Amino acid sequence: MISRRHCKNLRGGFTLLETMLAVVLFTIMTVKVYDTMQAANRTSRESTSRVVLEDQARRVLNQIALAVMGANRETLIPDTPAPLSMSDMRFQVNLGIQDGQVIWSDPERIALDDGRQQAFWSANPDAANEYRIVWSNIVTPFLEGEIPNGMDDNGNGLIDEKGLSLEVDRNAVRIRLTLERLTEEGESVTETVETTVTCRNLNVNG
Amino acid sequence: MAMIVVTVVAMLGAGYLQVTSALARRQFNAIDNQLAFYLAEAGLAESFQPVRMGRSVQIGSETDPAMFGQGLLWVDVLELADGNVRLDSTGLVGSGRATLSFVLEPVEFDLGFFGDEDLIVDNVFLTDGWDPAAGSYTEQVGLETIEIDKSYPFLHVMKEDNILFYEGTFYRYVGPEKGSVQYDASVPYASLVGMSGSSNYGLDPGDFTDADWKEDYVPGRSDAWALAGNDDDDYEGPLVCEIDFVRAYFAGLDANPPPAEEGGDSGPESELGVTTGQGALLGSNGDVHFTLPTGEVAEIWGDVRPGPDGSVTGLDSVTIDGATGSRATQVELPVVTVPEVTMSAAVRHDDLLPMLIPQGESGHTRIEVAAGAELVIRGPATVVIGELVLEPGAHLELDTRAGEVALFVTDELDLQGGSTVATSGVEPDETTVQVSSTANDPLNPAVTLDATSQFYGTVYAPDTDVRIGSNFEIFGGVIARRLDISAGARLHFDSSGGDGRNRPRIIGWRVIEVPAAARRRGDPFRLLGVDPTNAAVLADAHDLGNVTMDLDYIDLAGVERSYVGSEDLFNWDDVESVVKVEREALRPKEVPDDAPPADEPPAEPEEEVRPGVLDAIASMDESDLRDFLLANLPLSDAELEAALATDKLGTLHTALVLGGSSPLSVEMLRTAATGTTQLDATGLGALLLLNSPLPEDVLQSVADDDGTLVTDFFKTKILGAN
User: ipTM, 2 decimals?
Assistant: First the structure.
């Protein structure tokens, strides 16, 4: 008799306590898993965002570098060695040789539009037929770590350099660029890249 | 429900994977493009020096590229119409592609003062460099050119441009005296006028307060000073003067000029005067030996560059303010190509009026300029002279105000001591002296530059010896087989062209479109069908088959040998050392825009039909026609057709007329080969042989002929000639 009742009790399921304990544990586990997934997701998005940003920064940097390499050195603005720098470069590039003479392009320009945070290339700057191509519209007003205070805040030897800065020293140009974008969570991701290239076209008269 | 969840998760996973994969692919592409760019740059760098060495510079090809790192590259070369060389270098790495174009000026002789054989320096002389583009030499040594105020009665000289103001020290004038110099003690500036050199100015040497001072400060001219101690009024020697004078406040007070002010802009001083302190270039294809007497130390304000197997010795007797590294390659000195001009007879010029060689081209067997006489070469001029001799007191003026002077000397250039040479300009590019002599006598060199001079120009004598005297101050360069530099000479290298390393000059660089065959994405090895295990590495991919090499070398057994032939067939393993090497590359040439395409034959000039000839042919009788045609050979196609159409020529005259009008056009040959003319088998055979090589169809008809068209004898000859 006793054993039958005992068996009946076993078939009757979980006690309330057991059920509540299970629910609580399940909830805790679910929350933890959700948090972990959220964190992983955020890290992944941030990482992807940073990679995409670096990719974009490198592309813009390479385009500027190619322009400098092909530019006529004498059309670049005179030397701006550190702590000076500029964020607006006008130049002409080599289009080829004809009758022993180098043919130079129409004037071109690479510059930073502070207001729109754009790094752009343009042909025939300031002329009626000027046209622009924006290479990036997330350029910071000042290079990473720099604030406009007349000092070298980020320790790169330049004072108050812009988000796109060009430092010309003889035939070499050091290019620095900082891009910044916000993640979906509203966090800022910043990427700074730099390179130094040399003008290849030095004998302008060919 | 579970299936839905699994499906959604799977789709999300796939999407995420695709995004990540696309991102990674883009990054890899960017990296590959960057690597391809570097590879193309490596191709240009690999080609850069061979341009100077005379190689073809073609490295690999589209069908047989060179392997470098993980990618492939090739460099195509094209010789442009102006002699420059264009290099197109293409690099392929993974999915990356890049093609860069370089235009170079292949040869540039920045050799400075250069001896093809060992250079032996056994004297102290002044050598430095300056850049004409950056101002005059005097400005670059911190000196100023004085403006002579001709209102002062004591000094009237024509060549005031040569009067220099050595800051705080003294003025100097060197050159021929063309006016008069008057000494007037009442003029403050003339309180001390030192004068050396031969003169007839009527000055009393007693007026000069300090002869020793001058002797010390102008080494090597004390002989002239002694001459000035003669009775000047009667002296009728060479009209050469050198005047040193100081401002009044130095007059007679100091035995030595005051030192340059500290912190001033003037250059460092050597034993022989102020220098720019940089830019000199002494070089050789062999060794450079400094063998100065004990206690003497030479100062070289710049580089000393021996040949590739050479070295600089005697460093304890020289201070070198620059590099002493060997050149990377042997410098090849092209022979002088003398223009062909009509040569006039030998002349000895001893007249008081200057002898003028006018602008343009001219040739002279020998010119001897006597004491007191003057020779003026007025540019633009190309002048060929067999022997040019300036006797003491003679003067040579190279006037480049209107254009350059190119002087070619075939046998001897003897500018003797006491003569003077002057160039009107101060640009070394304006005056070139090229000597083609191959005389080999170091004791009696074919080129003696012993005149008193400030010579702005270049002397190029690759196959003979050059002696530079102590009074020959040269601004430019001298290139010789053997160079003998006297004590006290002043050699200023024109360093505007570069640093003397004789590199090709870069005319232009740009990124160009990748060749069509390389544009498709994918593994470059598979794309171009290259087996990585068998591909040539970059260093071995130079095209040497198009390079003719003329080489003198010492083999491993110590025997001197020569080789002339294709460079790719030469075995370098047998070479111990190279004595001389010259290369000549066969590069593809640029085709001018107006030239016909290579696969089309050049357009034949339009036929000329002489007025009235066709009418005459039609109207003449047989005898007159034959005479007329023979008198008017060769005939055009139209005239020939008209003549053959008359059927009045007969076998012999048909052969004579067609033979006399050869080479015939293709159309006329085809007409003749049909056998429709009056030619017999012998005549046609001779005509076709005369016009060989024949067009294919005509040749085929001869080959198929059974003896009716041409005789067997001519058939054999024609087939052999084709």
Answer: 0.78
